[in-house]
Amino acid sequence: MTTSEIQHRADFSKVRYANCWEDADVLLAAANPEDKHCLSIGSAGDNSFSLLAAGAKSVHVVEMNPAQVACIKLRRAAYLCLDHAEFLALLGETTLPTVQRRALFQRCLPQLDAASIAYWNHHQNAIDKGFTRDGKFESYFTLFRNRVLPLVHKQRRIHDLLEPKSRADRARFYHSTWNTWRWKTLFRVFFSRFAMGRLGRDPAFFKYVEGSVADRILARTRHALIELDPATNSYLRWILTGHYGSSLPHALRQENFTTIRNNIDRLHIVEAPLESALPTLPRLDVCNLSDIFEYMSPENTERLLAAIISNSNPNARLIYWNMLAPRSRPESLASQLVPLEQLASSLFLQDKAFFYSRLIIEEVQS
Fold first, then answer.
1. pTM higher than 0.90 for the full model?
2. Helix crossing, 254-262 with 46-53: angle to 10°?
3. 276 and 2 in contact (C-beta within 8 Å)?
4. Residue 77 domain-assigned (yes or no)
5. Is 231 part of any domain?
6. CA distances from 148 to 128, 136, 153, 181, 183 (A)
7. Helix-strand-coil split of the chain, %, nearest 5
């Protein structure tokens, strides 16, 4: 089996992301996936299910981390076995006694394979608290929310931030109340390369990152608090409160629940690195690539992009994010892959997952 570059440098035995941290609304606007064959990097699965909700003909979810695969399969089982309120309760979005959450998990067992059952039986503590709280990235934000944020802002001020406001009032609140010296100082410490590498992601994920990590994320946070509306930002609300509340991401919204359940047979989970999975997939129309190139050298990025192009139909769209390492189509592929810069720039301004630095949308040429 062909391996991915990052497999040789990072530990993939744990859940790194218990939720998807790319904005599904932006993804769907970029992809227009109705009646199309889609590739989707797995992560926790949310955005792959969103593609189903938007009418994809097929969604091949490619994920090389067995722990992440267990997350995706439990989500799949929950869509099939639970109603919407129960689904949110199992995820941890609503308060529930441990015994009741375990009972919901038990109801999902008929739709789980032996490997997933064994994984979750070994991680019952994750089920007890809601398994979308169990990722390393989520634990990092929980640490920020419980230990760092209280040193900067009281609960009343956080509540005020999340209240609906006009753009002018958001700017006034940010500059006069939120953006204190203490906020900037502690933010730069907690979201530094060192802290993020050890507590939130993996030191290996920063191999190709240049410059200040914290300063870039701080600038994007300012955009999220002023230019976007914090009151409706699901990702910001989760970071600050630990719950999405009424601002659910696309795959968790009630209006999409039944459609996802009805289309679930179009979802195919492929447990492998993308490099080895590609030859087994149908010719693709949409590729949700998350931020996988963040962890690759420019040379390996070029090789993988070429392989994706070879397995894609004309006009197929590749959608991916840069967080800290700049990656996009190399000049060697200019005749085969065209950047849709205007669309990407427009959608990026709406991106509620504010910590990314750039959205890339590229189209395969015939």
1. yes
2. 80
3. yes
4. yes
5. yes
6. 25, 17, 9, 14, 9
7. 55, 10, 30
Flag whether 333 is in a domain: yes
Phi, psi of 2 (to 5 degrees): -70, 135
- Does any domain span residue 177? yes
**Residue 123: exposure state from Cβ atoms within 10 A (0-12, 13-18, ≥19):** middle
Residue 35, class by beta-carbon neighbours within 10 Å (0-12 exposed, 13-18 middle, 19+ buried)? exposed
Q: Which domain holds residue 201?
A: 136-241
- The 10s digit of each residue's pLDDT in 94-127 is 989 999 999 999 999 999 999 999 999 999 999 9
Question: Can you tell me whether residue 164 is helix, strand or coil?
Answer: coil
CA-based radius of gyration for the chain: 20
Query: Structure tokens of 103?
Result: 């009972």
Taking only the tens place, the pLDDT of each residue in 244-297 is 999 999 999 999 999 999 999 999 999 999 999 999 999 999 999 999 998 899
Reported as a pLDDT band with limits 50, 70 and 90, residue 14 is: confident
Question: How many other CB atoms are there within 10 angstroms of residue 317's CB atom?
Answer: 22
The CA–CA distances, whole Å, from 109 to 12, 30, 118, 121, 251 equal 24, 35, 11, 11, 21
Provide the number of structural domains found in the chain. 2
Q: What is the DSSP code string of 53-107?
A: HTT-SEEEEEE--HHHHHHHHHHHHHHHHS-HHHHHHHHTSS---HHHHHHHHHH
CATH number of the domain within which 320 lies: 3.40.50.150
Q: Provide the total of helices (H) and of strands (E) in the chain, helices listed first.
A: 18, 7
User: Rounded to the nearest 5°, which phi and psi values hold at 358?
Assistant: -165, 145
